[in-house]
């Protein structure tokens, strides 16, 4: 699973825009064959079209990856949503929707890819959590719960899958300039952190690219925080 290896096959969920799109572009530039999986299919197709023959957008990702490129060596579980509402007004349906996408989706992705990674002789699972998986924020209970869960799930999976040469880590972005944060007070939120500005999707893509290759071959079951120092305060 060396950088630029012809045998490196990556799946990126939630890859149609924002962090996911940047991750897909970075991995493709680094020589990976990339599968973009996203419910925003038109956005996904628009992304992969200019990327060329090394990328595809599909919903049946693992089977398609193996049939097209070979066994999967990297999974980036990036798909996520947020619902902003006070606890007392939060419906069970809205809470469950966030957990289903952010937490249950990660479980499904990890479970689906393990047989393929075992056939490949190993791999790297990279679960995108959040600083909300390290500290808490008000009015986003489902988001916080799901992102803390992703952190714990990554550690548990790392303990199980290490015997197969499969590494599992979580990445914890801070405030990143993406469509999800558009219209929010991101500048005010980052004004007092050590690096006093929002991050860029490429900052997360760089961390993912590191975890996707043998440059991080002895790193598993841990958190990589990319937050401009937000959680240091």
Task: Characterize the structure shown.
- The chain is α/β, with parallel strands linked by helices and 233 residues long.
- The chain has a single domain (9-227), classed as NAD(P)-binding Rossmann-like Domain (Rossmann fold).
- The chain has seven helices and seven strands, in the order βαβαβαβαβαβααβ.
- It has a seven-stranded parallel beta sheet with strand order 3-2-1-4-5-6-7, sandwiched between helices.
- α1 crosses α7 and α4 runs parallel beside α5 (141-161).
- The longest helix is centred in the middle third of the chain and has 29 residues, at 92-120.
- The protein is globular.
- The protein starts with 8 loop residues before the first strand and ends in a 7-residue tail after the last strand.
- 46% of the residues are buried.
- The model has no long low-confidence stretch (mean pLDDT 90).
The proportion of residues forming helix, as a percent range, comes to 40-55%
Query: For the terminal residues, how far apart are their CA atoms?
Result: 36 Å
The CATH homologous superfamily is called NAD(P)-binding Rossmann-like Domain
Count of strand segments: 7
Q: What does the largest sheet look like?
A: 7 strands, parallel
């Amino acid at each position: 699973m060396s950088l630029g290896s012809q045998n490196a096959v990556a799946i990126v969920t939630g890859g149609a825009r924002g962090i996911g799109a940047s991750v897909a572009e970075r991995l493709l530039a680094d020589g990976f064959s990339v599968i973009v999986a996203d419910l925003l299919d038109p956005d996904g197709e628009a992304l992969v079209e200019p990327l060329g023959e090394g990328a595809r957008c599909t919903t049946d990702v693992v089977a398609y990856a193996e049939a097209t490129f070979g066994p999967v060596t990297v999974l980036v579980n990036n798909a996520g949503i947020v619902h902003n509402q006070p606890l007392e007004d939060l419906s069970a349906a809205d809470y469950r929707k966030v957990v289903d996408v952010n937490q249950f989706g990660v479980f499904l992705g990890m479970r689906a890819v393990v047989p393929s990674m075992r056939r490949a002789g190993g791999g790297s699972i990279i679960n995108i959590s959040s600083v909300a998986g390290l500290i808490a924020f008000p009015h986003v209970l489902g988001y916080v719960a799901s992102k803390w869960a992703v952190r714990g799930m990554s550690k548990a999976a790392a303990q199980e899958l290490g015997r197969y040469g499969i590494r599992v880590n979580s990445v914890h972005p801070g405030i990143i300039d993406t469509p999800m944060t558009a219209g929010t007070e991101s500048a005010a939120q980052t004004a007092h952190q050590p690096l006093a500005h929002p991050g860029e999707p490429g900052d997360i893509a760089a961390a993912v690219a590191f975890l996707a290759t043998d440059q991080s071959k002895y790193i598993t079951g841990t958190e990589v925080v990319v937050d401009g120092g937000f959680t240091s305060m």
